[in-house]
Design goal:
The complex is a heterotrimer of chains A (about 475), B (about 90) and C (about 500). Chain A has about 475 residues and is α+β, with helices and mostly antiparallel strands. Chain A folds into 2 domains: about 5-290, no CATH class; about 420-475, Arc Repressor Mutant, subunit A. In chain A, about 40% of the residues lie in helices and about 20% in strands. Chain B has a domain at about 20-45. Chain C has about 500 residues and is α/β, with parallel strands linked by helices. Chain C has one domain (about 5-300, about 385-485): Amidase signature (AS) enzymes. Chain C is built from 15 helices and 11 strands. Chain C has helices at about 10-15, 20-40, 50-65, 105-115, 155-165, 180-185, 220-230, 275-290, 300-320, 345-355, 355-370, 375-400, 420-425, 435-440, 465-480; strands spanning about 45, 75-80, 115-120, 170-175, 190, 210-215, 260-265, 295, 400-405, 440-450, 455-460. The longest helix of chain C is centred in the C-terminal third of the chain and has 25 residues, at about 375-400. The chains are: A alpha+beta (about 475), B alpha+beta (about 90), C alpha/beta (about 500). Chains in contact: A-B, A-C, B-C. At the A-B interface, strand 2, helix 1, strand 9, strand 10 and strand 17 of A face helix 1, strand 1, helix 3 and strand 3 of B. Strand 2 (about 50-55) of chain A pairs parallel with strand 1 (about 60-65) of chain B.
Amino acid sequence: MDNYEAVIGLEVHVELHTKTKAFCSCPNEFGKEPNTNVCPICLGLPGVLPVINEALLEYAVKAGLALNCEIAAFSKFDRKNYYYPDLPKNYQISQYDLPLCRNGYLDIEVNGATRRVGITRVHMEEDAGKLVHGEGGADYSLVDLNRAGVPLLEIVSEPDIRTPEEAKAYLEKLKSILSYIDVSDCKMEEGSLRCDANISVRPAGTGILNPKTEIKNMNSFRAVQRALEAEIKRQCAVWAAGGTVESETRAWDENKGTTVPMRSKEEASDYRYFPDPDLVPIVISPDRVSRIKSELPELPDARARRFTSEYGLSAYDAGVLTASRALADFYEACARNYRDPKLVSNWVTGEFLRLVNARNLEIRDVKLTPAHLVEMLELIDKGTISGKIAKTVFEEMFDTGKRAEDIIKEKGLVQISDEGELSRIVEEVVTANPGVVADYRNGKEKAFAFLVGQVMKATRGKANPQLVNRLLKERI
Amino acid sequence: MKLSKKEVEHVALLARLALSEEEKERFRAQLSSVLEYADIINRLDTEKVAPTYHVLPIQNVERPDKEHETLPLEETLQNAPQRDGNYFRVPRII
Amino acid sequence: MEIYDLTAHELAEYIQKGELSAEEVTRSVFSRIHEVEEDVRAYVTLTEEKAYAQARYVDEQRRAGKKLGPLAGIPVGIKDNMCTKGIRTTCSSRILENFVPPYNATVVEKLEAEGAVMTGKLNMDEFAMGSSTENSAFFPTRNPWDLNCVPGGSSGGPAAAVAAGEAIYTLGSDTGGSIRQPASLCGIVGMKPTYGLVSRYGLVAFASSLDQIGPFTKDVRDCALVLNLIAGHDPMDSTSAPNPVPDYTSFLTGDIKGVKIGVPREFFGKGLDSRVADVVRNAIDKLADLGAIVEECSFPYAEYALPVYYIIAPAEASSNLARYDGVCYGYRAVPEKGEKYDIIEMYMKTRSEGFGAEVKRRIMLGTYALSSGYYDAYYLKALKVRTLIKDDFARLFEKYDVLVSPTSPTPAFRFGEKANDPLTMYLSDIYTIPVNLAGIPALSVPCGFVDGLPVGLHLMGPAFGEGTILKVAYAYEQNTSYHRARPPLQVEKRPKPTVRLQEGGNHRG
């Protein structure tokens, strides 16, 4: 296997979260009762006509620009003809030979190295409905057309990806960019981002183009990585055994941990693409392109570079913080208002992300506000609470959205910095532990830590640690 | 342009039409003669001619991203050949 | 003369003045329908109850002193390929036999908003594919001038209904001549407007880049009035023209002095019935007598129009008709007794049983023309020749205001006469098809008879030149009497109800 390299291209479909569908004005919403989010147009009833949603064009141009594509001055929609019961017209409105965006790229980082992956094209199309297959070998399926007509972008990469890790990094970067420009949620688990992969292997360092397989049915970034790993292994084994890899479509089987051939279609597909006569050409003026360009937010790579220079963060931390726009926004809102941006970074990449993951939350749903985090950090600075207590306070803030001050008051967590009170407690601890005191005096450093712990325990962690240290040292 | 029976069968499958043997032969003959007739257009040199997809010079027709009312469920399903609760029901998909 | 014999503008005047109620007009038309429909068979579905409700509403409005639309209270029939909410819309196809649309076509909305009275849905060739209405899955419609002859097609029902007095006017659709050819064969006025002038939203698509809705009327003034009603931009149709719409009646001056008329010699060649040629030549002489400047001209690409059409239209149709699959609406075939089918078998059985022979033939042809390896040779090539035809017209319209030709090479033919040879049938539309390819407007106006069967004069104009066409047609019509002729329908076998005008009525009779 070491002698082989993989040639991987990814075909990604993302659902755009416009307010309405691509060619009719039905809401672009999920989770409604089956077949209640439809109209004559997305049902494909006789006589209906499509009209392009202007937001679809805006989002597509935005995505094209964010992915460094050329925006076509002249573009059009075509019909892709095939029969499937989730496709009410039995053709999909898509783009064939004149996609809206072409020749883009994105940069990925894997193992510290940056690689550029080319993007062949980005085009617009409509989504199909959903099929529910009857349970237990039933001989029927059920059709729900709520999703029919939802706008999609198809993003096709060049076969520039060499490893499954790169494939995953490409998807993560793509998700990051598309979320930044706010055109899609990109949730693979929920189907708003779908990925198929084309993959072949060849002896490393050669330019040979071997037959490739198309892998479908991968439902997470992790699944993409695993499926590609398994498929590389399989193809290498076929070649190593003197066989030939068949050009075919295979499905990832999560349980078996391998790809399996998909039942081949009865006919060679012939989509009979032709320009949709119901839709007129799309001519995007240079003015419109520059207007959309000027509205693009700062993208992840640029923002990460700025975070390292402006806030002195490591490239790694800057990368973590800028992977999601919401996280980067949160961080920056704190960092701008606090003296030590690196300390903020520690809290955000540490406790904050730990709790986001533990609670399985979206960053935008977190109750904690940047201002509250800054307040808490200032309370540590003032000595009102200790760094240790702060973790407890932070978790409470995170879960409830309350201010640190209120939590501290409610729970009586104010740090004890009263020298008189602490001296009294130190005295009690020393008196109660003569043996340990003796050990310390005989040079056992650990004994001192035990005594500090006893003081902290007596104050339920609220004692000012520096003060306790000094007072103990003075006393013994 | 003469069509073969195999071509007729392929086109019928693409178009999802089941044809009897008699229909296959009839369509083979009729389509062949229409296509043969249509072949006269190949006499014309169209190398420098642009295709007419649309007769009117209309472009960039877009609608605002605003919602309209969806169809009541009963109207959506009123023509369903086979209904199953909220769904359209179809035979097994292989 | 009976009420149903009158024109829409005559009736509208009576209704506006209160000399006739909309209900009386409606009653007259329905009694005529019940009288002759057994012979003519123009309607697939009658909407009598709805018609009376609409008529009474118009009468109430008038009594309440509300301003009525220009054609309020006038009975109109709709070709059965325009969607009508709650009323089945079949396209005269078994596959849509029980389809009830949950929405109205834009034209239907417009008519209803203007107080139209809908008589019902009219027969046609299945999915508008045909030139005789013999391709209706239900029954053929007969020509009111000779019940042994076809009314033309595909809008045979709408044409026959107007000719027989079963509607005051009707709406049809025209993809390659489907309004003008039946108008010609039934002796009435029929117009195909410029592509994009009338919204296609709700018109069941046959060939999207060619389809256009238009009126069938008893005279040119009615045609202008109906066009006023249905023309105009529709945001639901991306191909709808944004142009402002003039008042088409303003062109009905009767004066055509100096109007330049071209007569393409290619439209008088092989295949044209010599008697039709004579009638049309006489009509052209009449135009010259009225002061028009008539000149012979050449349309070199004429012979390519038919082959181009028979590639483009079926190609678009093969995709447009893919949706009839038995999944969400329409006919679904049942499996053979004791057997089960999978989805592909269901599709194939449904479509084979649901479509008639002509529809299948065109779906096959279009699928082939778009299929891999043939797209460039057929579809793309046809679109390029389409450009040549369009440019040919553009060149002629630099010189002429209007072009004229026969509408159809023959008068109405007998049932079965052309049914077995698709190519011969396709030749019926040889003069009308170039117009659809170029997207320009054209109208057929009655210009005489051959053996008691009507002949139509075909007037073609540049895009959005409806006004000029109407002006010429009106001048011609006002100086002839063919539009006043009514077919001698033999209906003595049944008692003939007559509807009398209310007292004080002063319509001409």
